[in-house]
Design a protein that fits this description.
By secondary structure, the protein is mainly α. Helix content is 72%, strand content 0%. α5 packs parallel to α13 and α9 runs parallel beside α12. The longest helix is centred in the last third of the chain and has 32 residues. The chain is globular and about 90 Å long. The N terminus is likely disordered.
């Protein structure tokens, strides 16, 4: 018997990690992951061939991010996630809060801007179109915290606590669209906060931390609501297949625990990235100041000393 149009049999055996990691690729995400890796690899190779360097850490971050998506959507975890709330919640949390962070640390937009050739005067190629998008009003809106924070929160409450979730889970296209939405929301939420790529909204490091902590508590509250519920809250997972040997309410409580625990994971990852970026930014500023002092003979320091001397003279 098929479930939700996914071609997946309802008589799945009880879940184990080994069974969950078995190969079962979703065609859309398999192709998307392969295309993403190929394009990123092309960019790195193009830079290398012309003698430019690209940080290995960024490549590792991007590749790990793509593999994390593949792990969630191209294994049997995706099959179990259609009938077990707890496994679905692992998919949701990884794709919305771990994969985006890793992809953003890979700086794919920066790589594209450096690797894509310019189209020439008066012409618009892929690089020029990308720059237009980055500087567009649309991009300024969707990366502003007034937009990203409510969207991040609504992706939980407006989805799971309304009939929309059951509707989307009823078809392959709906399920794929929901997972793409989770990834997109994570990208636009974390990009202004800790993304390496240039963007229209780039506040100071302290403000970025405040934006991060403005959204995370709602994930914890969502998880607690699922853990404390006395009855199943989502129709899709109300009657799991008997072959799984799971209780719907216990599985929902486990899903809530996963959502609650994952609210801490991105906080730690992003804070580490922000501290590293803050430190690197201070070092770059110090080097610029040193170079300026070398060029002008440290005139700023001389002027400050002269000012102090004038104050001392007036005091005498």
């Amino acid at each position: 018997m098929d479930h939700s149009g996914h071609g997946m049999t309802m008589d799945l055996p009880p879940f184990t990690l080994g069974r969950g990691l078995g190969w079962s690729a979703d065609p859309f995400f398999l192709i998307a992951c392969l295309v993403g890796l190929a394009l990123y690899g092309w960019g790195v190779v193009r830079l290398t061939r012309r003698g430019d360097k690209w940080p290995v850490g960024r490549t590792v971050g991007f590749v790990t991010g793509v593999l994390s998506i593949g792990l969630m959507m191209c294994t049997r975890l995706n099959d179990y996630g259609m009938v077990m709330f707890s496994v679905h919640m692992v998919q949701h949390m990884v794709i919305s809060m771990v994969s985006p962070i890793l992809l953003l640390l890979g700086a794919p937009i920066t790589l594209a801007l450096r690797a894509l050739p310019t189209a020439g005067r008066g012409r618009k190629g892929p690089r020029e179109l990308l720059l237009m998008l980055l500087h567009s009003r649309y991009m300024r809106i969707i990366t502003h915290p007034v937009f990203t924070i409510p969207l991040f929160i609504a992706s939980l409450y407006a989805l799971y606590f309304t009939p929309l979730f059951d509707f989307l889970m009823g078809s392959r296209a709906g399920h794929v669209g929901m997972m793409v939405h989770f990834l997109a929301v994570g990208l636009v939420f974390f990009w202004p906060i800790m993304g390496v790529d240039p963007g229209p909204h780039r506040p100071g490091h302290l403000m970025r931390m405040l934006e991060l902590f403005a959204g995370m508590p709602f994930h914890a509250f969502f998880g607690i609501a699922l853990m404390m519920a006395s009855s199943p809250m989502v129709d899709t997972f109300e009657n799991p297949p008997a072959s799984l040997g799971v209780d719907a309410l216990s599985d929902q409580n486990a899903a809530g625990g996963i959502a609650w625990a994952f609210s801490e994971v991105p906080s730690v990852l992003v804070l580490l990235a922000l501290v590293a970026q803050w430190y690197a930014s201070d070092r770059r500023q110090a080097r610029r100041t040193d170079r300026a002092a070398d060029r002008d003979g440290d005139k700023e320091l001389e002027a400050y000393n002269a000012y102090l001397a004038s104050l001392n003279a007036r005091g005498s």
